[in-house]
Amino acid sequence: MELITRPRRLRGNAVLRKMVRETRIDASSLVYPMFVMEGKNIKEEIPSMPGQYRYSVDRMEEKLTELADAGVSSVMLFGIPEHKDEVGSGAYAEDGIVQKAFRKAKEVCPELYMIGDVCMCEYTSHGHCGVLCDHDVDNDKTLELLAKTALSQVQAGADMVAPSDMMDGRVAAIRAKLDEKGYVNTPIMSYAVKFASSFYGPFRDAAGSAPSFGDRKSYQMDFHNRREALKEAMLDVEEGADIIMVKPAMAYGDLIREVKDRTDIPVASYSVSGEYAMVKAAAQAGFIDEASILCEMAVSAYRAGTDIYITYFAEELAGYMKEGRIG
Ligand code: PBG
Fold first, then answer.
1. CATH number at residue 272
2. Are 59 and 101 in contact, with CB atoms under 8 Å apart?
3. Residue 205's domain spans which residues?
4. Is 247 a catalytic residue?
5. Can you tell me which atom of ligand 1 is nearest the CA of 122?
6. Is 12 part of any domain?
7. 253-282 pLDDT, tens per residue?
8. What is the domain count for the chain?
9. Mutation test of ligand 1: which of 31, 77, 119, 149 has the most ligand atoms closer than 8 Å to its C-beta?
C-alpha cells in the first residue's frame, strides 16, 4: 500500500492530538445568563430548565461568587418584574428589578463583568418586545424606550448592553443615547442575527415573557434565511455594534461561520434555553451523557467562529476546560 498522506498519523496519541488541535477555547469567553426577580430570599428552580434558578436580589451573591470561583467572569442579567404594563416601564425604571440587580452585583462581586439584556418583553403586559400600535410592535416608538432601558442599566452598573428586541435601528439609537450621556466607552453587543425560534420556549416560561397573542415573527428573523442574516449583521456593524451575536447557537453554526467571515468584530453565539432543556431532559432520561454532549456542543459553536459563548452551562464548561477535557 503506497499511501503518502495518512491523516491518522496526527491522531496517534493524546499529546499529539492536542498539539494539532484547531479550536482552542478558555473560560474567559463564557457568559452566564442569570434570572433575577423581585422578592426576598428566593432561589426558585425553573421547571423547564432543571438546575437553573430565579434569584431575588438578596440571594444573587451566592451564585455570583460561585461563578467567579469557577472561572466564569461575565454574567448577563434578565429581570422578572413584579408588575408589567403596556409600555414596559419596569424595563427602564431607576428602581427596576434589573437595575437593582446590577447595583447589587457591583457591590458584592465587582470583579464580574455585567451585561444587560435590553428588551421589553419581560416587562410588557402583552409580552411583545416593544410598544404596540394596533396589533404590531411599533418600531420607531420602541427605539426611544430601548435607549432609555440601556441607559438606565448602564447607570445602574452594567458594563455592556445587549439589545435583543430586533427592532430596526436600535443599535444606533442606543449608541446615540449612551454617547449623549457620556458613556462613549460602554460596548454594545447586538443580538444582530436573532431568529424567531421555538428554542426560546423554556426561557419564556422562566421569564414569564411569552407573547399573549401572536408571535414574534414580525421582528425576529425567519429561520429559512441566510442572506438576510448577513444583512442584519452588517447593518448592526454600521450602526456601531461592538460585538454581534447569532442566536440560537446549536442549529445555526452555518451562520456563525458566515458572520465571522464577513465581519471584523467579535462574534457571540447564544446557546439558548431550549438547547439547555433538551440536553438536561435527555441526560435525565439516561439517553445521552450530559457532560460530553455539552462539551461537543460548545466546541462546535467555537469551531463555527464563536468568540464569546453565552450558555447556561457556563460553570460546567469552565470546569471541563480547567480539567483539560476540552480547550
Ligand atoms: C428577550 C430574550 C429572549 C431570549 C433572550 N432575550 C426571549 C425571546 O426573544 O423570546 C431567549 C434566551 C433563551 O431562550 O435562552 N427578547
1. 3.20.20.70
2. no
3. 23-321
4. yes
5. 1
6. no
7. 999 999 999 999 999 999 999 999 999 999
8. 1
9. 119
